[in-house]
Amino acid sequence: MISDAQLRAQLPHTLRQLDLPSLGSLYRGKVRDNYSRGDQIVMVTSDRVSAFDHVLGTIPFKGEVLSRLTTFWFEKVKDIAPTHILSVPDPSVMVVKRASAFPVEIVIRGYITGSLWRDYQSGKAGAYGIDWPVGLKKDQRFDRPIITPSTKAEYGKHDEPISEAEILKQKLVTPELWREACDVAQRLFARGQEWAASRGLILVDTKYEMGLAGGKLVVIDEIHTPDSSRYWLAREYLQRFMAGQEQQMLDKENIRQWLIKEHGFSGHGKPPALTDDVRVMLAKKYIEVFELLTGETFVSSGGDVQARIEQNLKKAGLL
Ligand SMILES: Nc1ncnc2c1ncn2[C@@H]1O[C@H](COP(=O)(O)OP(=O)(O)OP(=O)(O)O)[C@@H](O)[C@H]1O
Ligand SMILES: [Mg+2]
Description:
single chain, alpha+beta, D-amino Acid Aminotransferase, Chain A, domain 1, seven-stranded antiparallel beta sheet, five-stranded antiparallel beta sheet, 9 helices, 14 strands, about 25% strand, binds adenosine-5'-triphosphate, binds magnesium ion
């Protein structure tokens, strides 16, 4: 595991954004800077971290960890469905096929936790159009994974739960494509859970984005990363569940917990500034889950991320 000193040394070099207008037209999401030209997107994963739909700051090596994990996972699932990936010119950059993205996110859950648990408890989980069993306990495993779709809100707005019936009624996705998307999601999730289990982890839930490219369904964006998924330590699951304790979380939930517990912040008002200590703590979580999933020690060149990306893009003939 990378040392605290190395993580601290990286703090001033994190990638907040990449301004390279010659790459194409820019769409800046909360985490990614997407440069589109024709049917290709140069997708740069920055080191930005967001929670409760606010960008809070940067975390050393985060962009690289997410991008490398996405590449890792896409390789593992490529027999299930085509993915948007075309090439990887830099550890933080993917060149992808541009798709017309479905206006819904396909969230799939193996356990009841997080926002679904809160909605279930307060009787608001009906928005998904699912007949929930009664008497579920927090963090309980479902008999089989359940899809709880959400709308893909425009920038600055919150994603909202939506039911399958509503998706079809509003014609957000055709019935055939929706069926295919759900089937692909179930198979991707099963593969993800299987691999995570072999590495001592539970893939608790995740979010897929899909779209159409060349008339075919493709899996886009990121996949099974600690930003888009929850991961728990498997060996502690049962004992903690029985004792009603929080699970050992190795994902973005750590920052949500820090915001709530240390600052009483859960999305309203001005978010607190991240301290260097918390940035280092979070970097360690991202790297830990990378190492557990891949079985590799995380090694990075470190230093000026922007300079490295520019150099690699030039080498690949993209700049
Ligand atoms: N192959 C693709 N074709 C078209 N759009 C894509 C593709 N892959 C990912 N995207 C879009 O690129 C954006 C990725 O940026 P990022 O992850 O930072 O966004 P976000 O913060 O999750 O969402 P938002 O777009 O609401 O800011 C998302 O809007 C995603 O839907
Ligand atoms: Mg995203």
